[in-house]
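Justification of resources, computational component.

The compute hours requested in this renewal are based largely on the per-chain cost of generating structure records like the one below. Each record pairs the submitted sequence with a full structure-token output. That output is archived, and it is also reused by downstream analysis tasks.
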Amino acid sequence: MFAVILFVFLSLRLIGISNPILDAAPTRQANNAQVARNYYLHHNPFLLAEIGLDGAKTIYQLLELPIVPYAVSILYQVFGGVHEWIYRLITLLFSLATFLMLYQFVKLVCNLTTAAAAAAVYSLSPLEIILAKSLLVDSAILCFSLASIFALYRWVFYRGRVWYWISCLCL
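The structure output for this chain reads:
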């Protein structure tokens, strides 16, 4: 059952993974792609998210912690250039991590059937399908939020101090 849900999850999200930045919220996606590209080209420090709106001057933008654009820029270096599918793959991996954590968390709290139902609903959510393929940080934010809640749950019920710190780190 889980394997079928996972297959559906991946199948729906791999469609159009190499598309250009023309889908949902193209302006925000273009900004994020530009930040990742500028990390790649200029080797800026982590907290200097550079964006050039008119090409003549440097503007630094920090709306959220630039974990995703920075990770993407590292992969740009590994793969030898700017490729949009790399950014989409990173957001897809965050979405997959969220899917797996949701399944494990619901299985821990409820039961296997409820976990499969939660995973199925998450995998078929139209908004999540769009966000998992976009160049937005929403998948990463959702992943870290769920990881924080999951770790906090484990800290409360299993009393491992490390879970408290993992929860804090994920926030």
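The beta strands are 50-51, 59-60. The chain has eight helices and two strands.
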